[in-house]
Protein: L-cystine import ATP-binding protein TcyN
Organism: Sporomusa sphaeroides DSM 2875
Amino acid sequence: MITFKNIHKSFGANKVLQGINCTIPTGSVTVILGPSGSGKTTLLRSVNFLEKADQGEIILNDIHIDVAKASAAEIHKIRQHTAMVFQMYNLFKNKTALENIMEGLTVVRKLPKMEAKAQALQVLHKVGLADRADAYPHELSGGQQQRIGIARALALNPDVILFDEPTSALDPELVGEVLEVMKTVAREVNSTLVVVTHEINFAREVADNIIFMDKGVIVEQGPPAEILNNPKEERTKQFLSRYI
Ligand code: ADP
């Protein structure tokens, strides 16, 4: 379970998160929707302290952190339980697909190389790229690179996987293969998935829970049938009218 309690974050005078309160159940798929600039990515990145919120509490299972007082040890602990999939994949250019996946296992998880390799091959298989283990990022399409990004997160077997607009940097024809892999992950993996995306159809099909944000607050949240088909708030209706 991830709980946000009264999370605030400003960049200078820009109040990006203005009191976020919510709970994301263990093992669920939660999609965060909302207009550009509403604070979705900042909220996602605040979970693993890639962005440090100014105020509030973040609770991940038994780890309770008062963000204003977070120690390096607490941040390390929460990072041990999370993995992130980035918009721009962030793969090491001079490492193969397999080596990119092994990196976190050997460096962060301190696994012996042989064990890391076996696990990396397993997740490569899961994202349908076992035959590209030895390819370098520049030899792969954007969609394939993002599937490696997802495999790298999966390999860590984290409690929570944070997806930061995983398809928004891709050419439209490559989006489908990444969404397919994410659907497989949602079906087959026990991790809690939190996904910032504009892919409404993905949200409809896969999400257990949708959080709709605007201007740094959660406007409403609930199951897709409720939020997408029968939104209560005017801001949600307006946002959805652009997509549906
Ligand atoms: P969203 O993901 O909903 O598009 P973001 O969380 O990326 O929104 O951004 C919310 C606001 O915070 C935007 O106005 C953005 O310009 C600002 N912002 C995000 N990151 C930074 C940063 N590192 N420095 C300054 N401003 C930032």
